[in-house]
């Protein structure tokens, strides 16, 4: 077993193996070297990564004490990871180390904080939040002054009729009214006649039946002449034509508002004067 105590860092340490191969331990703190000549027993040296533990296979275990002389574990340099071939270690003087190219100077001290930059642009407004709950009703305010009267509203619907009142007393008779217009003169003679010849109608006629003037049904019917409509307002004539042919008649206004001057065979007519023209009232 070998035991080396390094009590003076940065000093060369040498040790003999007691005559079994002249093993030497050398180097400077914290890097030690162990030289085993080739004529010694075949041995392998390894470590379990715990400080001070070195294992020699096919031989004894060698324990080396490599602690700092000041036993302060916080004053060693922790090398940064990475780095490229040819780079060197640089420090900022505050315990921070980096790998830098060999042609660059040492890490300069950290500069002072720069001035505050200008404010950035206004961001896009966010979505409206949900409507909060209604607050409690406030205290009623003082009574306001009377406002102006508004316009009248629309009339309401008629109400239900009230009960029938009692009959009032009969009033005095009114004065005599003016005499009414004369009514239509009723025919006094020939209220209904049957004819085969032409005829001019007067107030003596009302219903006229036109009969055939020849044998068969191919005769021309008699011609009817009406009095002036303005001379007999309201007068009515009933004319039935089955004379066997169409009959001519004074002009009248038919049921479509057109002028006509024929009475068709096999038809009945009701004509009435309106004081201006003769009007067809019914055609049967």
Low-confidence stretches: none
Strand content: 25-35%
Question: What level of helicity do the residues show?
Answer: under 10%
Number of helices: 0
Kindly state the number of beta strands.
17
User: What does the main sheet amount to?
Assistant: 5 strands, mixed
Radius of gyration: 73 Å
The shape, in one word, is rod-shaped
Helix/strand class: mainly beta
Alpha-carbon distance between the two ends: 156 Å
| Strand line-up in the sheet with most strands | 9-11-13-16-17
SSE succession: EEEEEEEEEEEEEEEEE
**What would the average pLDDT be, to the nearest integer?**
78
Protein topology:
Blueprint: E1 3-5, E2 24-28, E3 31-35, E4 44-47, E5 53-57, E6 62-65, E7 88-91, E8 97-100, E9 192-195, E10 199-200, E11 207-210, E12 224-225, E13 236-241, E14 247-253, E15 259-263, E16 267-273, E17 278-283
Parallel strand pairs: 1-6, 9-11, 10-12, 11-13
Antiparallel strand pairs: 2-3, 4-5, 5-6, 7-8, 13-16, 14-15, 16-17
Architecture overview:
- The protein is an all-beta fold and 284 residues long.
- It is built from no helices and 17 strands.
- It has a five-stranded mixed sheet, with no helix packed on it.
- β5 and β6 form a beta hairpin.
